[in-house]
Each structure stands twice: as structure tokens, then as C-alpha cells.
Task: inverse folding
């Protein structure tokens, strides 16, 4: 029987068979017996390796004994983002179909009252982002002294997001004798320090990056002018000329740029949604659902929002910005070419990105081929400047603010469906600005 040698319970094995898995992935093979033996585990693995099931399956088996008490969760899973937390909740629903466990999600952007009600009923599995969890402990609605097993997932991402002090606080609130499962894709010194401090003689389980990630993906670098409007133009050309584009994720380094690019794409009549940390939870969930179902073609996202998301069958990845960390490049392009499919990843490169590109090529162990940029959409003009100049301060607000944080996604959709006038040069944020000559004269500073 598949998974039979790992020591999982019959209920779990039945759920795994129903999920269609025929054999465990390497991380599952190595980690599951250790978790079932109540050992701490240090798992060095990234998403796409099956690491969620590597902790969810044995947890379900362990949780079959015992029951939950009010406000005292039995197990706690920490995730860096709300989407990842929701994804783990989905895994419990999928693998726990034969169990009757109470699973609660504590994430920001959702009312405290509903979460309080769930906590009062008693929770077997609490999945939380660190900030909201600490809010609840400070309000006294949650006690962590009953936690038997703690999972810290995507620890290196927690580090990037500045959550390490929160993690340290939480580790001190749970009993010293708990079992800890710690997952990270990389081991920077700060993460090493945390593992030394909070793990007890852990079993170290390491799986390499899925080799197929890079092999199955056609990767290209595309030259572009440095100005944001030039990059957007390059991107539009790439999308329009992409062969076999079914759907695509477009990554930006900053959430501010996610919002700007998203609005620009809408103006240019592309079917797009945005995913970034400033959107409220309902809008984020709605955006992801639309993309997953194929209702929209393009998802514009930041690394943090998209990290670890399991979106099957994405045909193209566009890096609007070269990521600062080469690891992020691997994560980003790993969203395509999944499950034996092929994928395409294109990265827009401006002159200042050369160093970052070299670091990426070093990490993936191969050069990435350059491809000629697409032809310009508009003839070059004598003076082109993006709207932002040092004298003008902040860029002017675009006329439409469809992805305003807090605005329900449904409202955005309704607005998007309305017939829209063709974009004019005056309205487009990409329109070049003509400056009078006196503004271009050098300024002489007084002695
Ligand atoms: P994860 O690394 O946890 O994000 O999992 C990546 C994907 O692998 C998810 O879509 C899982 O449903 C899938 N998966 C997990 N374990 C297995 C397995 N043993 N066989 C096939 N697919 C799996």
C-alpha cells in the first residue's frame, strides 16, 4: 500500500490515497517517521517538495489521541502570510477528511470576534500568522501552554519579513517540552541561531531544490529601458508576443509597484488581478480565486504575497523586476513548469540589474539566455520623462484606483466589467511628459 511504511494511521492513509498520491516525496519519506517518533525536525526544503503534507500527515495521526480544550490549542502552525496559512488550512481539510478535528485560522484582516468564538470551542490545530497570534495572546483570548507540537514554516521568509522577534516571543510562550518542526528553504545565520536556541536535538532533513524546476522551464532575459513606463511597455510587448500563454504571474519587487503595474495593465485592457500585502484579506482571496479558476489571465504579485502559493499549471512567469535575492528567482520561476509541465520565465533587466543577474546565474548554475526585447510600441520622442521628478515629489495619483486597499474585490470586478473608454494619452500613466526648457536648465547653488 502506498505510504504504508511510514507509520501513518489508516485514516490518514485513506485520505492520501483519495488525494491520488502514489508514493511519498523525499521530504515526506524522511520527515514523517521522525515526526511520528516525537522528534524535533529541521526541514530544509522549499515549497513544491510536498513539505506541507510532510508535517500535516503525521500531525493528523498524532492528533487522533486526545482532545482539545477551550482557548488552549493542541498544535500551532506559524506561517508568514495569510495565503500560506489558508493553504495549510486547505491541506488539513483535504488530508483530514476522515478526522473530526477543529482547525482554526488566526490571520489579520479578519474579525477578532469570529476567531474568539472558534478558540472558545477548543482547537486541535491553530494556523496563524505571528502578529495576529500575539494580538490574541495579549487580549487573553488564547493560551499557548497546551501546545504539544509547534510548526514554524517558511522560516527564512519570516526573517525577510521581520517576524523573527515575534517567533522568539511565541517560542517562549509555548511549553519547553513541546515538539517543534521547523521548515526553511535556506539557512542564513539568524535562522541557525533560532534553531540552535529552540530545537532539541532535531532530525535534520534536507531535500534539494526540485531539479525539474529549472530544467523544464525556458528562461530568458529581456533588456529594457530603466524607467518604469519603459519597463511596462517591454512587459506588454512580452505578454502580447508570448507563445502559448495561458496565464501568467508577474512579479514585482515592491508592493507599491504591484499596484501601479496592475492599474496600468487594466488601462491597457489586460485581464489582471493584483496580490500584495496592503490588500485586505477578502480582496486577496478573491484575486487568487479568480486567477486559479482562470477568470483572469494575469496575476501581478509581490514575492511575499505569492510565496509558496500552490497555483497549478501556470504557463508563464514574468519578472517585472529582477529579484534582489537569487533565491526568490528560483521561487518565482518555480511557479511554472510544475508537475511535469513545461513553462516559460522571462525577466526584464535594466542596466542596474547586472549584478543581481550574475548572482542568479551563479545560484542556478547556468547562464540565462538573452532575448531581443520586443519592438517599441511608440516611436521614441525627444524628451521622455516619467511623471516623477525630484522637484515634483510623489507621482500623481492615477485617475482610477481599482485596487484601493480595503475595497471589496467584487466591487473592483463590477467596475472592471463596465465598458471602459479607450485609454487616451492624457490619462495613461505611461504618457511621456514634455518639460519647458527652463526646467531643464541646471540650477546654480548659492555659495
Ligand atoms: P507543497 O510543497 O507542500 O507546497 O506541495 C506541493 C504540491 O505537491 C501540492 O499541490 C501537493 O498537493 C502535492 N503533493 C504533496 N505530496 C505529494 C505526493 N506524495 N505525491 C504527489 N503530489 C504531492
Result:
Amino acid at each position: 500500500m502506498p505510504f504504508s511504511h511510514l507509520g501513518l494511521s489508516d485514516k490518514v492513509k485513506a485520505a492520501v490515497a483519495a488525494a491520488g498520491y502514489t508514493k511519498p516525496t523525499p521530504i515526506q519519506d524522511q520527515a514523517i517517521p521522525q515526526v511520528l517518533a516525537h522528534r524535533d525536525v529541521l526541514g530544509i526544503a522549499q515549497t513544491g517538495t510536498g513539505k506541507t503534507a510532510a508535517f500535516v500527515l503525521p500531525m493528523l495521526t498524532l492528533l487522533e489521541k486526545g482532545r482539545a480544550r477551550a482557548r488552549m490549542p493542541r498544535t500551532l502552525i506559524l506561517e508568514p502570510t495569510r495565503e500560506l496559512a489558508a493553504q495549510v488550512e486547505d491541506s488539513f481539510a483535504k488530508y483530514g477528511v476522515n478526522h473530526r478535528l477543529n482547525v482554526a485560522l488566526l490571520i489579520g484582516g479578519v474579525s477578532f470576534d469570529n476567531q474568539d468564538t472558534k478558540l472558545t470551542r477548543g482547537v486541535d490545530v491553530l494556523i496563524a500568522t505571528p502578529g495576529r497570534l500575539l494580538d490574541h495572546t495579549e487580549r487573553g483570548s488564547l493560551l499557548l501552554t497546551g501546545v504539544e507540537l509547534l510548526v514554524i514554516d517558511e522560516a527564512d521568509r519570516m526573517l525577510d519579513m521581520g517576524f523573527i522577534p515575534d517567533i522568539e516571543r511565541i517560542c517562549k510562550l509555548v511549553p519547553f517540552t513541546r515538539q517543534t518542526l521547523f521548515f526553511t528553504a535556506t539557512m542564513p545565520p539568524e535562522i541557525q541561531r533560532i534553531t540552535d536556541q529552540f530545537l532539541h536535538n532535531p532530525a535534520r532533513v534536507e531535500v534539494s531544490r526540485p531539479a525539474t524546476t529549472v530544467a523544464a522551464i525556458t528562461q530568458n532575459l529581456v533588456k529594457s529601458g530603466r524607467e518604469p513606463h519603459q519597463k511596462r511597455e517591454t512587459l506588454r510587448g512580452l505578454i502580447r508576443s508570448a507563445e502559448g500563454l495561458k496565464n501568467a504571474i508577474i512579479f514585482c519587487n515592491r508592493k507599491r509597484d504591484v499596484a501601479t503595474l496592475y492599474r496600468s495593465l487594466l488601462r491597457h485592457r489586460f485581464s489582471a488581478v493584483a496580490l500584495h500585502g496592503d490588500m485586505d484579506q477578502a480582496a486577496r482571496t478573491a484575486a487568487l480565486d479568480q486567477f486559479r479558476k482562470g477568470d483572469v489571465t494575469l496575476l501581478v504579485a509581490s514575492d511575499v504575497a505569492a510565496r509558496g502559493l500552490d497555483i497549478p499549471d501556470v504557463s508563464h512567469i514574468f519578472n517585472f523586476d529582477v529579484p534582489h535575492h537569487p533565491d526568490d528567482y528560483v521561487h518565482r520561476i518555480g511557479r511554472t513548469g510544475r508537475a511535469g509541465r513545461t513553462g516559460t520565465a522571462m525577466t526584464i533587466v535594466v542596466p542596474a540589474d547586472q549584478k543581481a543577474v550574475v548572482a542568479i546565474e551563479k545560484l542556478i548554475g547556468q547562464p540565462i539566455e538573452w532575448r531581443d526585447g520586443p519592438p517599441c510600441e511608440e516611436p521614441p520622442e525627444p524628451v521622455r520623462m516619467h511623471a516623477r521628478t525630484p522637484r515634483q515629489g510623489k507621482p500623481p495619483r492615477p485617475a482610477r484606483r481599482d485596487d484601493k486597499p480595503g475595497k471589496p474585490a467584487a466591487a473592483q470586478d463590477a467596475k472592471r466589467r463596465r465598458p471602459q473608454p479607450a485609454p487616451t494619452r492624457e490619462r495613461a500613466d505611461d504618457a511621456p511628459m514634455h518639460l519647458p526648457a527652463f526646467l531643464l536648465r541646471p540650477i546654480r547653488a548659492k555659495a
About this structure: The pocket of adenosine monophosphate is lined by residues 21, 24-25, 28, 47-53, 310 (CB under 6 Å).
